Structure formats: structure tokens, C-alpha cells
Amino acid sequence: MATTAFPQSAAILSSNAHPTLALVERAIGRRSFCVLGTASAAGRPHAAGVIYTTVDGDLWVSVDRPSRKGRNIAANRFVHVQIPVRRGPVGPPSSIQFAATAELFRPEDPTVQALLAANRLKTVTGHGELERPDAVLVRIRPDRVMHTYGLGLSL
Questions:
Q1: Is the pLDDT of residue 8 over 60?
Q2: What pTM did the predictor assign?
Q3: pLDDT tens by residue, 71-130
Q4: What is the C-alpha separation between 27 and 83, in angstroms, rounded?
Q5: Which of 23, 52, 79, 97, CA to CA, is 20 to 30 A from 61?
Q6: One-letter-per-residue 3-state SS of 15-62
Q7: Nearest-angstrom CA–CA distance, 146 and 96
Q8: Residue 132 and residue 13: Cα distance in Å, rounded?
């Protein structure tokens, strides 16, 4: 299980429960799928499901630079993340959502190379993603405030 290490000053906002930061961190670290919302320079929104991994409080995603996600992040670094948290076989999932800033990294960047050497990006690079000619990695830094739905409520 990955650890997220969000700042202890992170605020968790929920309309129906009061989950702890530890519960939110654990939920994020145990998942690998999220919906990444981006916007173009003209403000046109786009949302897409992506696979992520967590490293020291950041989420990392692999994308192709010419993809809509890559183009949007290059033009507008402000993104939004929604992580579904399925806890039971029926009913809607709980969720975690937050605004964040995103940054594109080429595979040869020293930051990426250090994480690759430490095998910390395997989830998002273990299937040949970096062999694509236009591959880039996205580091997503969550803002201090996170919102939840249903997390912390009993089933």
C-alpha cells in the first residue's frame, strides 16, 4: 500500500460525516483509479478516468503529451480529482474530491528518473507507457482542502 503523506494541516470537508485525515489518506493510497478533470486554455472542461499512484502526497499519472489531458494541463495547470471509494457490493460509492495543480514531466527528467530508480512509479509505467514517443508523467499536487462524500459513515 502506498502512503500519501498529506500535510497535517489538510482540511477534510464533508457534508455527511467527519472522516479523519488518516482515513482519507488510507483510502487514496489503497486505490489506483480516479477521474481527472482538466480545462483547456479557453475554459472547456474535460474529464477522463486515469490510473494513478501516490508518492509523498502527490498523485502521478502517465499520459501522452498530445492527448487532450496533456494539452489541457500544458495550457492550464489547475485540475480536479475525484476518487470513487467502493466499500460495499451495492449502493453508490463514497468519494474523495479535491482541486490540485498539475505539472508535466518528460521521462528523462531527473525527478522522474529518481522515482523510476526507486520503483515508485511502477503502477503507471509498468505496461510500456514510457516506450510511447509522446509519453509524459503528470504530478498532481492536491490542494489543502479535500471534500468527501460518504467516507467515514457506517455501511
A1: no
A2: 0.88
A3: 999 999 999 999 999 887 887 899 999 999 999 999 999 999 999 999 999 999 999 999
A4: 9
A5: 23
A6: CCCCCCHHHHHHHHHHCCEEEEEEECCCCCEEEEEEECEEECCEEEEE
A7: 7
A8: 39
C-alpha cell at 140: 498532481
Q: Grid coordinates in use for 36? A: 481527472
What three-state secondary structure class fits 116? helix
CB atoms near residue 18 (< 10 Å)? 12
Greatest Cα-to-Cα distance within the chain, rounded to the nearest angstrom: 47
**CA 142/CA 58 separation, integer angstroms:** 7
Distance, in Å, from the CA atom of 138 to the CA atom of 103, rounded to the nearest integer, reads 5
Confirm if 143 and 81 have CB atoms less than 8 A apart. no
Instruction: For residues 26 and 29, give the distance between their C-alpha atoms in angstroms, rounded to a whole number.
Output: 5
Rounded Cα–Cα distance for residues 59 and 4 (Å): 8
Q: What is the Cα–Cα distance from 97 to 110, expressed in whole angstroms?
A: 30
Q: How many CB atoms lie within 10 A of CB 59?
A: 27
pLDDT at 3 over 70: no
